[in-house]
Amino acid sequence: MQSSKITDQNLVTQYIQGNEACLEMLINRHKDRIFTTIILIVKDSYIAEDLFQETFIKIIKNLKKGKYNEEGKFLPWAIRIARNMAIDYFRKMKRMPTVTGSDGEDVFRKIKLAVDNREEQMIRHEKESMVRSVINKLPEEQRQVLILRHYGDLSFKEIAAMTGVSINTALGRMRYALNNMRKMMEHTSLNTA
Fold first, then answer.
1. Among 21, 46, 47, 116, which residue carries the largest CB count within 10 Å?
2. What class has domain 107-187?
3. Is 3-93 in CATH node 3.40.190.10?
């Protein structure tokens, strides 16, 4: 059977009815997006691998318990579980993601970008370095919200819950972060276009 022609919903239904191969098809179909979601938040491939496995264990448990009712929306449901696993990891570790991790890797390196010609790559790298520098100069609260929103792809509701503040405070911190970045970029003559 051709896995690309079968909908996620059909694969979920068949898996729940006992067809184990359908789970493997779902995993193979969505593993890259789910893993990328995790690694953008934790920025550590070893931790991301562990969380990826835990995510699928939780997905399997939820499917078997009948807790999947997101008809036709398996990927967003799975990504939400992956995000929550990453958030739980940070709660346990009592630390927040930063732009540069202890291993020297950062979120910008995890984003898959289209291959450009060498000149465009050099220009992009220069701009990324400047943006990274500006982000690192932001106050901690503003930097956290910016990273969680833009690179962790979390909602403001999730950010508020994760940081222990109201949604309005999270929105305000984002607004201040963007205003501060704009001012710093103008000051350093960075053209964001």
1. 47
2. mainly alpha
3. no
